[in-house]
UniProtKB/TrEMBL annotation:
Entry-linked PANTHER family: MALTOSE-BINDING PERIPLASMIC PROTEIN (PTHR30061), MALTOSE_MALTODEXTRIN-BINDING PERIPLASMIC PROTEIN (PTHR30061:SF50)
Top-level taxonomic group: Bacteria
Name this polypeptide is given: Arabinogalactan oligomer/maltooligosaccharide transport system substrate-binding protein
Organism whose genome encodes this protein: Actinoplanes digitatis
Coiled coil feature spans: none
Length: 434
């Protein structure tokens, strides 16, 4: 039987979690998974939609499932790799139809408020999964909040950084990562002069232009004031900086198609020295035979504009479909507790460079000695939280179009951002002023 009421299912979850906790085998409050006296007695089949990169990250998550099954041999996890670009709408369609949605979804941080507002997620307040909520970093936790309630458990966190080629820097006589866009321009000129290679690549995607907008003190909306700000003078100034870097040759002009893939190919083949990207690509760079290993990878906070430096907070959360059968609750709890534990997060950090969301995970040996994780620490400290509103996941379609118009087609930044603002008003945040 499928439980239809979100209130009923939240109560069932709390009861099941309380019963599970009575087994007495919890080793710590940092995510130990032994929630039953006899884990082998727990029997269920769970479906998990994993939206991570199937090549760079997916194998590590599948390896964790095997570790989970060493303790819970009778909880079968139907692992399904779902393309990130398709998962949000696919989940909403299935959840609305009350059929075909996964029991557990790896949700991007901006998806959680929307899915919660639609009634598609469990309310986890009062559950065993949140008993050690204080161990999680505050910003990843905040992305799971909607209407004063909590609907997810942080999986990984991230932000955009300046990733650079150390050997190319050394060949160009550059001794430190650029801290401003002006310094980026100087560094790119030196790289071009000394090595003949390109200095910078900016991906023509809206998300990747947020550091430029933040750098000038702008944002896409002011959620507190319910105002659209994506076409403010600050936002326009930020986009013009990115646009000028392409126009003057500091940055490679991205192609009209597959700009992201082109960026990663050029970077891995050591044909461009600097890119703006995140920790999800660390394993990809590590495995590139032409790059030179992680010892050749430099990581620094995104360069500052005239106001500040900062990339957008990203990441993913474990969420539970509100239509999941009640009898699966104990198994879902055990699985998420294991996957979100400090030990599992440390494994992912060491294996593929993903950044933990737990404070205690940073004390794990494999994390403390991980140079990549250490390099991303100042990146996270400078990260800017996005507006956690139901419409947050819908901001980037219009932004992507704007990025192509300004970086590839050379269109006027103000005009393109005005179009984004009009789209937000008519289709996304209709009750906001502009």
């Amino acid at each position: 039987m499928r439980i239809r009421s979100v209130g009923m299912i939240a109560t069932a979850l709390a009861v099941a979690l309380t019963a599970a906790a009575c087994g007495g085998n919890d080793k710590s409050s940092s995510g130990d998974t032994k929630t039953a006296a006899d884990p082998a007695s727990l029997t269920a089949q769970l479906t998990w939609w994993d939206t991570s990169d199937p090549k760079n990250e997916g194998p590590a998550f599948q390896e964790l499932i095997k570790k989970f099954n060493a303790t819970y041999p009778n909880v079968k996890v139907d692992y399904q790799s779902v393309p990130f670009a398709d998962a949000q709408n696919k989940f909403k369609t299935a959840a609305a139809a009350k059929s075909g949605a996964p029991d557990i979804l790896r949700a991007e941080v901006a998806w959680v408020p929307e899915l919660a507002s639609l009634g598609y997620l469990y309310n986890l307040d009062g559950s065993e999964l949140l008993k050690d909520e204080s161990d999680f970093l505050p910003t990843p936790v905040s992305s799971n909040k909607f209407g004063g309630k909590t609907y997810g458990v942080p999986q990984v966190t991230d932000s955009l950084a300046l990733m650079y080629n150390k050997k190319m820097f050394e060949a160009a006589g550059i001794t430190a990562a650029p801290k401003t866009w002006a310094e980026v321009k100087t560094a790119a000129a030196a790289i071009k002069s000394k090595t003949g290679k390109q200095g910078l690549y900016i991906n023509s995607g809206g998300y990747f232009l947020l550091p430029f907008i933040y750098g000038e003190g702008g944002d896409v909306v002011d959620a507190a004031a319910k105002k659209i700000t994506v076409n403010s003078p600050q936002a326009v100034a930020g986009i013009k900086i990115a646009q000028d870097l392409v126009k003057d040759g500091t940055a490679v002009k991205p192609p009209a198609n597959d700009a992201y893939g082109n960026m990663m190919t050029l970077f891995k083949e050591q044909k461009v020295a600097m890119i703006i990207n995140g920790p999800w690509e660390v394993n990809n760079v590590k495995g590139a035979p032409t790059f030179g290993g992680l010892e050749n990878l430099g990581v620094a906070p995104v360069p500052a504009g005239s106001v500040k430096a900062g990339g957008p907070v990203g990441g993913h959360n474990y969420t539970i479909w509100s239509g999941m059968p009640q009898e699966k609750v104990p198994a879902a709890v055990a699985f998420i507790k294991f996957m979100a534990s400090a030990e599992s997060q440390a494994f992912l950090a060491e294996k593929v460079g993903l950044l933990p969301t737990r404070t205690s995970a940073y004390d794990q040996p494999g994390v403390k000695s991980n140079a990549t994780v250490a390099a991303f620490k100042p990146v996270l400290e400078a990260a800017v939280a996005r507006p956690w509103i139901p419409e947050g996941g819908q901001f980037f379609g219009p932004m992507d179009k704007m990025a192509v118009e300004t970086l590839v087609q050379g269109k006027d930044a103000q005009a393109s951002l005005d179009t984004v603002a009009k789209t937000y008003k008519s289709e996304v945040v209709k009750d906001y002023s502009n």
